[in-house]
Amino acid sequence: MKKILVTGGLGFIGSHTVVELQNAGYKAVIIDNLYNTKMDVLDNIVSITGVQPEYHCIDLRDKKVVQDFFKKNSLDGVIHFAASKAVGESVEKPLLYYENNISTLVYLLQEMKRQKLSNFIFSSSCTVYGQAEELPITENAPVKPAESPYGNTKQIGEEIIKETCNADGLKAIALRYFNPIGAHKSAKIGELPLGIPQNLIPFITQTAAGIRKELSVFGDDYATPDGTAIRDYIHVVDLAKAHITALERLLDNRNKKDFEVFNIGTGKGSSVLEVIDAFEKVSNTKLHYKIVGRREGDITAAYADTALANDELGWKHEKTLEEALLSAWKWQLKQ
Ligand code: UD1
């Protein structure tokens, strides 16, 4: 049984990926410092899959502990999620973001080199494109200067990995996610935002559940058909499966270059008002919302050109926006 390290394996995307890894017959080894999640997630993974993943409560900033872990564990690959991801917080605490997202990446890659372990999947983001000139966005679209330290850590992270591939024999795939949403169909794992949600879907579900009074729609004066901003919302289970597909490409030596990048989205853009409308239909609720000014740093529209992921990686999304919204709603109702 191949053994795969999943850093941040108790987080939103990490936990869904651990489930898919176990379903596909891999042994998952989780590292998570519980900074942005709860221990219950581990029990819930077991309850979904019937398999107990190995778990280590390790903070990757602790270089010595990371070294010890790699000395003691023989692995076949690493899927690296552990990182901080709040855009606003990153502007206030840039050094925390560079330490959490960059220092830890360097430590991991150093240990992988020492152990001659070469298969690495990196959690990147469509944020690297900023507002792209052309839509849909292909992987060849230029990387734009980052709008925040968070965005910068994804760009720098990709650069570090690419150079390590050139110099040290690493093989890596960076997956540039569009907007991950939804939850496992069991409603046992999902997104656990800390405090007031910053992202659209958790804010919608909490508003529908009566936890928030009203959703603010950030801007209706964008150059889009209904004036609200457009994103490509991808079901987290589809996204999790993309990691298994990418991992197997490396394990089977089917990669064409040592460092590859794929967009992971549905290829379909939805406006904020379209998301609200779809949510109201699937949940059979009426959402209280008001239009307010634009949120600083937001772009007008982003959706993926998925041709490379579909044809070259061999992955395609399966679930619709409606299925994703319904799963997020069922998860919310269980909280
Ligand atoms: C945000 C981050 C992005 C990160 C991604 C991770 C910002 C500026 N960008 O992307 O870097 O990679 O999350 O998932 O924070 N919206 C509302 N009302 C709300 C919340 C959101 O109208 O209360 C709108 C936003 O203006 C946007 C859309 O909904 O048009 C999606 O927002 P969000 O879920 O925060 O994702 P992004 O901004 O695309």
Explain what the structure shows.
- There is one protein chain.
- The protein is α/β, with parallel strands linked by helices.
- The protein has a domain of 211 residues: Rossmann fold (3-Layer(aba) Sandwich).
- Helix content is 41%, strand content 16%.
- The chain is built from 11 helices and 13 strands.
- The strands form 4 sheets. Strands 3-2-1-4-5-6-11 form a 7-stranded parallel sheet, with helices on both faces. A two-stranded parallel sheet has the order 7-10.
- α1 links the parallel β1 and β2.
- The longest helix has 21 residues.
- Uridine-diphosphate-N-acetylglucosamine binds next to α7 and β8.
Bound ligands, named by name, code or SMILES: uridine-diphosphate-N-acetylglucosamine
Structural class: alpha/beta
* Average pLDDT reading: 97
Indicate the CATH class of the domain at 3-181 and 234-265. Alpha Beta
Largest sheet: 7 strands, parallel
Distance between the termini: 35 Å
Lateral arrangement of strands in the main beta sheet = 3-2-1-4-5-6-11
Low-confidence stretches: none
> What is the helical fraction, as a range of percent?
40-55%
Shape descriptor: globular
Rounded to the nearest angstrom, the radius of gyration is 19 Å
Beta-strand proportion: 15-25%
Q: What's the CATH topology name of the domain at 3-181 and 234-265? A: Rossmann fold
- List how many beta strands DSSP finds: 13
CATH architectural group of the domain at 3-181 and 234-265: 3-Layer(aba) Sandwich
Number of helices: 11
* SSE pattern, N- to C-terminal: EHEHEHEHHEHEEHEEEHEEHEHH
